[in-house]
Amino acid sequence: MHRYSGRTFALEIAVLLFAIVLMIPFFFLVNVALKGDSDAFLSPAIAPPNPPTVASFVDAWAGSPTGNIPLGLLNSVIVTAGSLVVLIAFGSIAAYTITRIPGRLSTGLYILFLIGIILPFQLGMVPIYVVLRSVGLVGTQLGMIVLYSGLLMPLAVFLYSGFTRSLPREYEEAAQMDGSSRLQTFIRIIFPLLGPATGTVAILAGLIIWNDFFTALIFLAGSKNATLPVVIYGFVGANVSTWNVIFAGIIISMIPILLFYVFAQRKFIQGFAGGIKS
Questions:
Q1: What is the pLDDT of residues 81-123, one digit of tens each?
Q2: How far apart are CA 93 and CA 38, in angstroms?
Q3: CA distances (Å), 15 to each of 6, 8, 20, in order?
């Protein structure tokens, strides 16, 4: 039986202090967002709002001439959800196929996907932009879904591969003896067992896509399909920036992805632990 000792108490205090340090940026974010325009300009960021107001959230929701948060929120949801569907569908099939191929071909394909994770996609930014523009996908939701699916597919395959290797082959052999095809076996037997890995892929890839600013700025700037990071960037003025409104917009953009993480965190932890174990 584990005994509560002084060392345990010291570790708890250290973890608590570390958590407080991590919450400092979030404190400034909320503190400034609750200030009025004059209060945000004249008082330091650490000073409490006097008085607290939600006017900045109303202004952020109303948007700017370059875009509004409701439309940006819809675009972000469509791009993120569409990309995750593609990543989960094709990433799981590719990982299952790679882990079930015997010999050097499996190792070679796996290394190829690892290289895709290591190499920065910025090296091919110009050719990618030219190709998407030539097919009319620049500034569109479909173009961003195709782009993010390609960029994050190596990560999805890597995460799924670590989990599929730990699955026993007896399930597949039993299903095939009953007359099930390889695809039917994957859909009915294997994919339901990949639930924890699917949760991990959805959370990690979803966070990357939802928060991505650089790629969205290049491919969506000036279009009506701008995602939330680009819309919020439109609040930044050339001479004066209303930081309380910008911070309020950031908080609004955080809410959907935080709710998604709360509901999917159990699958995320199971998938991460399964990937490490394998």
A1: 999 999 999 999 999 888 887 778 888 888 888 888 888 888 8
A2: 55
A3: 14, 11, 9
Provide the CATH number for the domain formed by 64-277 in this structure: 1.10.3720.10
AA letter at 116: G
Lookup result for tokens 């191929």: 101
Checking phi first, is residue 67 left (phi over 0); if not, alpha (psi -120 to 50) or beta?
left
Q: Which amino acid is at 271?
A: G
Radius of gyration, alpha carbons of the chain: 23
List, for residues 200-233, the tens digit of each pLDDT value: 898 889 999 999 999 999 998 788 898 999 988 8
Contact 53, 35 (CB under 8 A): yes
- CA–CA distance, 135 with 151 (Å, rounded to integer): 18
Domain ranges of the chain: 64-277
Closest CA to 34 of 250, 255, 232, 244: 244
As beta bridge partners, residue 67 has 64
Token couple for 87: 């990543």
**Per-residue CA distances from 222 to 61, 121, 127, 232, 233 (Å):** 19, 23, 20, 13, 12
Contact in structure between 145 and 79 (CB atoms under 8 Å): yes
Question: Which backbone phi and psi does 4 adopt, to 5 degrees?
Answer: -80, 115
